[in-house]
């Protein structure tokens, strides 16, 4: 049984963009292949950063439907594809997740816990279903085609800000698991998507207690 404090998970999600900043649990293996990044921490904790290049957006975020080399923007996307779990997913997010799945398979590892931010939070939802593992996603876009719940749906916790537009896309898709939509006292008129803004709402919530302190099991 693996349980994480929300604050600790957020700290790891912020640190995962520079793996050398991760002290505990230590990084055992890292993936950096085909514009996909992931870190495996001691205890089989899977840590997934978000988009860190324009190529990520072209290859994954902005391509729910891949037709040759023609990009299809999110607002016009209506297609999904079945993953290993049998659930239909946003094709770009699924493609990203498959690279991580294949890497873990080669390493003979099944994650016990998954933490992701942004694009990594989209993959965390898919892989949580695949491995039946608890997951926390911050600033999570919507990867699931069906609006109905699926088996093992509830193992994933998503923390999204109301002033972050990313969790609202793609509009035709849906979130996995339990979603906590948080309205900050310090609502931002500019993009509030970085992990630093998510850490701030967790600290702010010490007063309101609307977010769960821990997640897992």
Fraction of residues in β-strands:
15-25%
Oligomer: single chain
Classified in CATH, the superfamily is Alpha/Beta hydrolase fold, catalytic domain
Described by the principal axes of the CA atoms, the overall outline is globular
Regions with pLDDT < 50 over 5+ consecutive residues?
62-78
- CATH class, please? Alpha Beta
CATH topology: Rossmann fold
Structural domain tally: 1
Overall mean pLDDT: 86
Order of strands across the biggest sheet? 2-3-4-7-8-9-10
How many whole angstroms does the radius of gyration measure?
Answer: 16 Å
The biggest sheet amounts to: 7 strands, mixed
**Cα-to-Cα separation, first versus last residue:** 5 Å
What is the SS-derived class?
Answer: alpha/beta
The H-and-E topology, N to C, reads as EHEEEHEEHEHEEEHE
Counted beta strands: 11
> Treating each run of at least 4 consecutive H or I residues as one helix, how many helices?
5
The residue fraction in helices comes out at 25-40%
* CATH architecture assignment name: 3-Layer(aba) Sandwich
